[in-house]
Design brief:
The protein has twelve helices and no strands. By secondary structure, the protein is mainly α.
Length: about 290
């Protein structure tokens, strides 16, 4: 294996380790903070980190005044709306359910890529994506495939909605012609403006509990900023994007170990089966896509 590929796999693995802890971190922090308080600390933390690292990008471009309203608009979608919906879902659902349902974002992204003609349409891929969505339904209904007995219907649909919103964001996120880290730094800065405006308007978004601050800082670092930077470095280093991309499918499985160990949640068989179906459908449709390219 080429050294660049080895380095890229190590970087991707590091990002995986960080991402796999955040479902547990969300749930622990929400014991001491509201979703908006967690959002306030984490978004500001990520904005500072991403903006600081953007100065080290090789391709520097000036930030024009015209970018600011676009940054606020995009920041209102992601991170503001996306993480607001996601944190509320985590506040209502068991961590295992919220993180697995949210993991449908690759399903929506693959479907959107075919729907909007970015990738060739293939009925077999649609079938595999439906298998993935069957897994999501299994998690939402706890294997009963009926809403009777569902842990929290609203929370489940919020988790699905966050996955859809993530898809929308990534389809339009390159509206500002800047290197990726600078662009994300602007979007998080735009969301920070919204959060600070809310604080000035008197909304209860600034936590007073030290554990809320610690959890918010952790989320800002290990969910929103550092894994993104490491992942971008892995993609730039590797000679095979496909190899690196496959690493992401290990994250929710590792996350379940943290959820079981640290949160003491009993992992339902429907959660595990649903996650296997989601992942299997995604891998199969990705294999078909690569074969047709």
């Amino acid at each position: 294996m080429h050294k660049d590929t080895q380095k890229a796999i190590l970087l991707a693995g590091l990002a995986l380790l960080m991402w796999s802890t955040v479902a547990t971190a969300f749930k622990l922090t929400l014991r001491y903070a509201t979703p908006f308080q967690l959002l306030f600390v984490s978004v500001l933390t990520a904005a500072v980190v991403l903006t600081a690292f953007s100065f080290f990008e090789k391709k520097q471009k000036p930030v024009k005044a015209a970018f600011i309203p676009v940054a606020v608009l995009m920041g209102s979608i992601m991170p503001f709306s996306y993480y607001t919906i996601l944190f509320i879902a985590y506040n209502r659902l068991p961590a295992q359910s919220a993180q697995i349902i949210n993991f449908t974002w690759p399903v929506f992204m693959a479907g959107a890529a075919m729907l909007f003609r970015r990738e060739s349409f293939d009925w077999r891929r649609i079938l595999f994506l439906l298998i993935s969505m069957t897994g999501a339904v299994a998690v939402i209904t706890r294997g009963r495939f009926t809403l009777t007995g569902t842990a929290d219907v609203t929370g489940s649909f919020l988790a699905l909605g966050s996955a859809l919103l993530w898809t929308l964001f990534w389809m339009i996120q390159d509206r500002i012609d800047l290197p990726s880290t600078m662009r994300m730094g602007l979007y998080f800065s735009g969301a920070s403006i919204i959060m600070c405006a809310g604080a000035l308007a008197g909304f209860n978004v600034i936590p007073l509990n030290k554990y809320a601050w610690f959890g918010g800082l952790y989320t800002g670092l290990f969910e929103m900023s550092l894994p993104f930077l490491v992942w971008q470095k892995a993609l730039k280093t590797t000679r095979s994007v496909a190899v690196i991309s496959n690493v992401i499918y290990l994250s929710p499985f590792l996350s379940l170990l943290y959820i079981r160990t640290l949160l003491q949640e009993k992992i339902h068989i429907s959660s595990l089966a649903g996650l296997v179906l989601i992942t299997a459908g995604l891998i199969l449709q990705m294999y078909l896509r690569d074969q047709s390219d």
